[in-house]
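Hi U.,

Before I forget, here's the chain from the pilot set. I'm dumping it here mostly so it's searchable later in email.
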Amino acid sequence: MIIAALRKKLAYEARKWAEAAGVPLPENLAVNAPPAHVKADLCLPWPLAAAKAAKKNPLELAKSLAEHLSKVPEIESAVSAPPGFVNIMIKQTALCANLKAITLSPKTYGEDEGGPKTKVLVEFVSANPTGPLHMASGRGATLGDSLVRIMKRLGRQAAAEYYVNDGGDRVILLGESIMARYKQSKGESAAVPEKGYQGEYLVDLAAAAPAGHDGWDTLAWGRYAMDTLLASHKDDMRVFDAHFDRWYLESELFSSGAVTKTLEFLKGRGMVFEKDGAVWLGTQAAEGSTDDKDRVLIKNTGKPTYFLPDIAYHKDKYDRGFERVIDIFGADHHGYVPRMRAAIGALGKPPESYHAIVHQLIHLFRGQEAVKMSKRAGTFIPLREIIEEVGKDACRFFFALRTPDSHLNFDLELAKKQSSENPVFYVQYVHARICSIFRKAAEAGLFPPDSQLPMPNARYLGAPEERALLNKLAWLPEVLLDCERLLSPHPLANYLLELAGLFHPFYEKCPVVSAEDPEQGKARLLLIAGVRDAIREGLDLLGVAAPEQM
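Structure:
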C-alpha cells in the first residue's frame, strides 16, 4: 500500500526538515490527491499550513521541502507549486509493486496496518416492528452494513446490531389496530385507533393469523403482528445482504432488570432528580451536553419513557466493551441526537466516543414523475417492493453514492437501465469486461488459467492511461480511511465510478490480448487484474455483486 507507506515516510522526513529549518509543522500532515489539472500523484499542503507560524514565505518553504523530499527512494520528483504546495510523482516501479500487492492479496488490500483495533458497535435500521421496512430503512442499512464491512477491512473490531423496540405500548396499539382490521374483514363495525397503524398490510396479517385467533385479546394480536413483522424485517435484511451480529430486543432490557439498574446507576452519579411527580435526567448538566432541556425518564404515571430503556441499551453497549458507539438514525431523529449524547456523558462515558449519523429522506421517481406511496403499505414505499423491481445491487449502490446528510432522488427507471447512464451497471460492466479479457487471454495462451501473473516490468506500463490506473489503484486504502473518517461509504462508491471511468480510455488505446509485444500484454493483464480486484473488493464492501458476465 504505497501511499500509506509514503504518508508515514514523508511525514517523518518533513519533521526532520522542519526541525533543521526551525519550522513548526502542524500535527496532522495530510497527504492529498492533487486537482485534476495538476500532473502529480500526491499534493502536500504542509508549507502553506506552516508559513504563518514560521513567518516565512510559503513558496520558499515549499521549494526547500521539495528538495529534501526528492531524496526519498520511492519519489520520482518533488516540485514546489504556488502558493505553497509540494507536488510529488511516485516512481513507476513503486506503483507496479503496489499493483502486485493488490493481486497477491486482494482480500487484505486496504488494511490499516498498525492502526487501532478499536471495538466499534454500529447500530442501524432499528425500525419499530409495527410495519414493513421502507426505503429509508434501506438507506440506513446501506450506511451501517457498508461501514461495518469497511471498518473490518481496515482492521477495526466492528460489530453490527439491530435494536428491536418490542416493549412499551407499541404492542397494545398494534394489537388494537390489527383487531380492528380483523373485525372489519368480518363485516363488524370497528375503527383503527386515531394514533394506530393504518396500512393495508394489517389486513393481510389478520387474514394470515393461525387457527385459534378468534379468542385472542389485544395483547395476543399485537404480539402475533409484531413477531410476524419482525420476521419480515429479518428476511428483508437477508435479501438486502445486510448482516447483524445481534438483534437486540428492548424487552430483554426490562426482563433482565437493566432498565431499573440503569436508573439506579444514574441516581448514584447524581444525574437524576424528581419534579412534578416525575423522574428526570439532568441532561443539561451532563458532560459535553448540548441538549436544551432536561428529560423525563419516569412519567408521573410511573411508566418509563422510551428514553430510559434507550439509555440502558447504550450503557449495555459500553459494558460489553465497545469503545466507540455509532447510531444511524432516520431524518426524523435530529432532536434525539443531543439528548443521547448528553445521556452518554451522564453515564460517565466520553461524549466524543458516541457518534450519530442522521440520513436524509429519499424521494422516489419514475423518470420525471414522483412516486408518493404504496397502496398496500399506506403512506410509504416498502423496501421489498423496490428490491423486487430494481434489484438489491442498484439500491445499495445508489444509496451509497450520496452523503448521509443529503437528500436522495432515486430514479427507478435509471436504476433498471442496462447502460452507462446507470452508475452501478457502469462499474459492474467494467468488472465483467475484464473477466472477459482474461477468458480471451487464456484462449490465446497468453495467460493460462492456473498460472500466476509475474511482476510487471514498469517500462511496459508507461502510457498515460496505464499510469492513471496505477495511481488510482494506489489510492483505494486512503479512500477506505476517508469512509471511516466521514462515517459514510460515499467516497468508496464514487471512487469505483472514477476507477471505471479511467478503464475505458485504457481499453480503447492499450490492447491486451492483441498487444504487439507479449510481455507488454502480460503487464497489462496484471494491471487490469488489479482493476478487477479493486472493483470486486470495493463492490463487496458496499454489498454489491461483481458479475463476471453481463
